[in-house]
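Hey, can you fold this one?
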Amino acid sequence: MPQPHITHHARQRMATRRISPEAVQAAICHGRRSHVRGALIFALGRRDVAAAARVGLDLEPHNGVQVVCTPDGGTVLTAYRNHDFRSLKPRGRRRRRRP
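Sure. Predicted structure:
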């Protein structure tokens, strides 16, 4: 996947949170994708790190990195570290009751 555009806000957040551009690229290339609240989120978790290790990649330093992108994935809006992926799971839709 080509390198996405990183906004000024995302660069600032990455710098304060000590997240490298390599970590962002690793999350985009090897992490899971999730559509949440109108954004595309790439998350690199322990299972993704283990899968990459089986093919010879060491992504352990990037474990827990989550990257929030525009819906088309072309622009990085922010990046952060979070090991809890429950918020990335799709929520069940409420079923309508028949009258």
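The chain has three helices and five strands. Let me know if you want another pass with a different chain boundary.
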